[in-house]
Each structure stands twice: as C-alpha cells, then as structure tokens.
Amino acid sequence: MQFWRTRAFVYALAAVAVGLMLLAGKMIARGPERFGPVDMVKMDPATPVPSTPLVGGPFTLTDHGGKTVSDADFRGQYMLVYFGYIFCPDVCPTSLQLITDALNELGPLADKVVPVFITIDPERDTVEAMRDYVAHFHPRTVGLTGPVEAIEKVAKAYRVYYAKVTGKSGNNPDYLVDHTAITYLMGPDGKFVHHFAHGAELPKVIEQLKDKLAVK
Ligand code: NI
After folding, report:
1. What stretches of 135-201 show up as alpha helix (H) in DSSP?
2. 41 CA distance to ligand 1 centroid (A)?
3. Among 42-46, 112-116, 127-131, which is the least confidently predicted range?
4. Distance from the CA of 13 to the center of ligand 1, in angstroms?
5. How far is CA 149 from CA 24, 152, 156, in A?
6. Across all residues in the chain, what is the average pLDDT?
7. For residue 161, which of 118, 120, 117 has the smallest C-alpha distance?
8. 202: helix, coil or strand?
9. Is the pLDDT of residue 18 over 70?
10. Which of 15, 127, 141, 161 has a beta carbon 3.0–4.6 Å from 115's, enabling a disulfide?
11. In whole angstroms, what is the distance from residue 148 CA to residue 125 CA?
C-alpha cells in the first residue's frame, strides 16, 4: 500500500494540524502586546506578508529634534520601521535593542539603514521625551511623533493596530497601549521589502538583513 494511504500518514497529517493549532493558540495568548487579526498571518518571519504592496505609505511627522520630516526624506536609504511607545514595559525596548544589536553586527551594510521609531502614544511621547528615549538605542535611530490624526494615518498605512488599555505596571502611570510589534524593512524607494516578527532571533535577523541589503 502506498504511504499516503496508510494510517500512519493520516496520523502524521493530524499531528501537523494539531501543531498548527497549538502555534496559533500560543500567538493569541501573548498577553498585553496582542496582535490584531490581520497581523496573525504575519507572525512567521519566514512568511512573506500577503498584502506586501499595501504596507507603508506617505507620512509627515516631527522627529526627535523637532524637525518636520516626511517619508520622502528617507528615500535612498532603507528604513527599519517600528511602531511603539515610550512607556512600553518590555516589548518595545526589546525590539529596538534587537534592531540596535543587528545594525551593530552588520558592519558597513548597516550604513544603508535608518531605524525609525514611530510612537503610537503621541499624547505622552513628546519631541523631548522621544529625544531622551531614542538616545538609548542605535545612534542613527529617528524618533517620530506628531498629531494624533497623523499617527493614526501612518499606523493605518503600515497595518499597525494599537489601542489604549487600562492597566498600570511599573512606570506606567495611566495606561498601557496594545500594539502590533512588527519591524518593517522598507527599501530605498520607500516600498516594503521584508518584516521581522517580535521575538525574531538576532542571528536570523542579521542573516536576513544581510540578504536583503546585499541584493540592492
Ligand atoms: Ni511596546
């Protein structure tokens, strides 16, 4: 009898199905930094985002030096775009540190890349607060804030979900913000190239960045 007709094959298929279900369950149960339904499919860093051409778009915001900047100012360089907020207890610092470590390991290739941290908590993350915050990470990191409507627009363009939630922990005096924790690599033309899920491992991120940055 051919293998695909055997009971063992059926069991193997069932095992794979259960494995996938467990994995999905694990993603859902991620605590305060939840992922929106759209982002569920983007979890595996090896899987291309299905709506690739639809990620990203124009923005005009204020950088951590108080200067007005737009997406066009980054043309010719890669951007590693990450959305988050200063009061974030651990997910944002972990992601920004990962970007910092990856760029430090990349050598000269890293010169092509600008890390861009866009706040989804603009009411608290003022220009001054952003200036102090980005100083903890890669020296080329640009912190962007702006009016609530401008942040809503850019988050939507990047398919980033965020929502204030009540809850106090550590240095969070008022509220936490649930948000998508994906890092987007955007090309010198401003178009989406690749994404990294939260929890991606440093050696893998370095390897993928080398691959993506070396081609163009
Ligand atoms: Ni965060």
Report:
1. 148-157
2. 19
3. 42-46
4. 37
5. 33, 5, 11
6. 83
7. 120
8. helix
9. no
10. 141
11. 11
Find the 55 Cα to ligand 1 centroid distance in Å: 20
* CA 92 to ligand 1 centroid distance, Å: 4
Dist. CA 83 → ligand 1 center (Å): 8
Task: Give the lowest-confidence range in 29-33, 45-49, 106-110.
Answer: 29-33
Q: 214 CA to middle of ligand 1, Å? A: 30
Gap from CA of 123 to ligand 1 centroid (Å): 15
Phi-psi region of 31 (alpha: psi -120 to 50; beta: other; left: phi over 0): left
* Residue entry with tokens 């760029």: 103
What six digits make up the tokens of 206? 């370095």
5 DSSP 8-state letter: G
pLDDT reading at 8 higher than 60: no
| Residue 32 backbone zone (phi > 0: left; psi -120 to 50: alpha; other: beta) | alpha
Q: What is the mean pLDDT of residues 58-81?
A: 98
Output 165 or 32, whichever has higher pLDDT: 165
